[in-house]
Design brief:
The longest helix has 22 residues. The chain has an 8-stranded mixed β-sheet with strand order 1-2-4-3-5-6-7-8, sandwiched between helices. The two termini are about 20 Å apart. The protein has a single domain, classed as Alpha/Beta hydrolase fold, catalytic domain (Rossmann fold, 3-Layer(aba) Sandwich), CATH 3.40.50. By secondary structure, it is of the alpha/beta class. The chain is globular.
Amino acid sequence: MSSRVVTLRSKRRISISAAGDPLARRVILLLHPTPGAGPFDPAPDITSRWGVHLLTADRPGYGATPQLSDGESHTVQHRADDLADFLRQSKEIARTSGGMAFDSVGLVGWGTGGTLALSLAARHPQLVDRVAVVNTTSPTGFTLLPGPEVSVPYTRSSLFIDDNEPALAARAGLGHRIDRMLGEASLQGSAGVDGDRRMLADPSWAEQLDRITADVRLIYGDDDRTSSIADGHWYRRRIRRSRTVRVPGEGALTIAARWARILGHVAPDHGGLGGPASPG
């Protein structure tokens, strides 16, 4: 995976990491939970042959993305607009440099990242055609963010990941990738989590959910401790093209356990290649 810092038109900077196939026409933007930062691929063996370019973006205070100053706005809407700015810049660079052009993108939001995915889809529908959110609570339910007693550096318990999560045994290297993501989230101390608390304190972003035109899947593991299928039903009542998906036997790492099906939704037909890019 590679990482770079991009300067937005607003002059703010945002850290971007990439995986998958850099020449793929299908771009998928994966948005981290709280806490989370840096490169993260739920299942590289699947991503590498799916025909997608997988990107992750660090929120302010995480990884290499600078913290916001006291006077800067920090709402879900502002962070969604930052992501839209990055995507538009990327499209323009690809167009003018002869790179691999892309049109709409697919979004995957894990936990807190789901709020950003939905806000981005609502505010910039021309950029997004498919969305999958995983274990994302409704706007009034963000009560299980890491509390003040959770210290930096963050550990798996900060994401309510139990040692007996089925995906840890089923996905080779997943624990290491989770630990790396949490390490990146810890680089600026608690700044990222503090920023997420501030961001989520304003639930007004959800008033725009009816603007979403993308095809949305709302995915919930039965054993997740931060959310439930009831949260998915809350979103489904407000998003026209949406379906809830209940995943029995999975918890905090539902995103890894169901990564192939998630990619099947946000990047159907293997990103337009018509099949796996390599055997397996």
